[in-house]
């Protein structure tokens, strides 16, 4: 606190300390970081939860498949309800660094341990699912057709 009659250096030091304290308090606010340049913002990773299910996987589902066949094709379901043991739910949630969160659901219903029917949100093709997982740029493997750089002869 600045008190009347403080020497100039002490008053200046108190102002600097108060400014630093205010800056530290504001740094925790999300609305404050929205106005910072991109390189000063805190890192925010993509949040992915659940099973990655593609359109190709959903198209392979057929009534009459066993539970083991469905589990082999889609993986272990994220939700198995104790009150509805004949229903499996595959959920996927992606909250990217930028852009709107995405949520996809696939519900599978069994009757006598065989696939009876299912309902699904529109699922992405496999190439798009890979890009969602790896980020917007995606994974670009080094081409096998590219020749290695020429070696310089040693003397």
Whole-angstrom Rg:
28 Å
How much beta, percentage-wise?
A: 15-25%
Order of helices and strands: HHEHHEEEEH
User: What does the overall shape look like?
Assistant: elongated
Report on the structure:
This protein is an alpha+beta fold and 155 residues long. It has 2 domains: 10-40, no CATH class; 47-134, Beta-lactamase Inhibitory Protein, Chain:B, domain 1 (2-Layer Sandwich), CATH 3.30.1450. It has helices spanning 8-27, 30-33, 55-59, 67-74, 126-134, and strands at 47-50, 79-80, 87-95, 102-111, 114-120. Strands 1, 2, 3, 4 and 5 form a 5-stranded antiparallel sheet that branches. Strand 4 (102-111) and strand 5 (114-120) form a beta hairpin.
Primary descriptors:
single chain; 155 residues; alpha+beta; Beta-lactamase Inhibitory Protein, Chain:B, domain 1; 2 domains; five-stranded antiparallel sheet; 5 strands
Layout of strands and helices, then pairs:
Elements: H1 8-27, H2 30-33, E1 47-50, H3 55-59, H4 67-74, E2 79-80, E3 87-95, E4 102-111, E5 114-120, H5 126-134
Antiparallel strand pairs: 1-3, 2-3, 3-4, 4-5
Brief sketch in words of this structure:
By secondary structure, the chain is α+β, with helices and mostly antiparallel strands. It is 30% helix and 21% strand.
């Amino acid at each position: 606190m600045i008190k009347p009659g403080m020497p100039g250096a002490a008053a200046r030091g108190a102002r600097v300390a108060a400014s630093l304290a205010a800056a530290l308090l504001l740094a925790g606010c999300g609305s404050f970081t929205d106005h910072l340049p991109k390189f000063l913002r805190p890192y925010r990773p993509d949040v992915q939860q659940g099973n990655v299910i593609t359109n190709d996987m959903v198209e392979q589902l057929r009534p009459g498949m066993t539970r083991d066949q469905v589990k082999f094709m889609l993986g272990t379901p994220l939700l198995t309800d104790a009150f509805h043991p004949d229903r499996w739910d595959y959920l996927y949630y992606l909250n990217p660094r930028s852009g709107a969160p995405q949520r996809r659901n696939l519900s599978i219903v069994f009757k006598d341990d065989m696939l009876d029917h299912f309902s699904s949100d529109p699922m992405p093709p496999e190439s798009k699912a890979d890009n969602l997982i790896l980020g917007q740029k995606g994974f670009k493997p080094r081409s096998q057709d590219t020749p290695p750089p020429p070696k310089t002869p040693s003397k």
